[in-house]
Amino acid sequence: MIKEFKDFIAKGNVMDMAVGIIIGAAFTAIVGSLVADLINPIISLFLGGVDFSGLYVLLGDGEFASIADAEEAGAAVFAYGRFIMAIINFLIIAFVVFMLVRTVNNMKKKEEAAPEPEAPKGPSELDILMEIRDSLKK
User: For residue 7, what are the CA distances in angstroms to 1, 19, 29?
Assistant: First the structure.
């Protein structure tokens, strides 16, 4: 059973998947920063300074200045702004992955469509046989 497990781990697909997961985790951090630090401020500028991540509805009694204060006090909150941000993150990640896959597929199509170089043209088999025949006649 241990040998089987080692064989499974050593397969290329498993290693490729592991690398993909690690790269994906790093990519998620980059996209999270892109959304939080670049896209969110631009959207907020057009919407009059609204920060999506701070939008929430209090599901209990009390008043709090921010979602962090409400959560710190243990109040139940409906944090729909975070959900909006998660949707924006997903759409950006999905678009970037789409562009990467599209680029790779286009590169593969170009490789497949590229004609193979023609073999150097030389004498045909018939020409060689005729040459041998002529040399034997002499």
Answer: 10, 18, 32
- Which residues contact residue 75 at a Cβ distance below 8 angstroms, ignoring those fewer than 6 apart? 58, 59, 60, 62, 64
Residue range 49-71: mean pLDDT, rounded: 83
Structure-block tokens of residue 98: 């789409």
Residue 34, SS3 per DSSP? helix
Which amino acid would we find at residue 70? A
Q: Which tens digit of pLDDT belongs to each residue from 102-123?
A: 998 898 888 877 677 776 777 8
Element housing 57 (H / E): strand 57-58
In whole angstroms, give the CA distance from residue 20 to residue 27.
10
Q: Per CATH, the architecture of 2-115 is what?
A: Orthogonal Bundle (1.10)
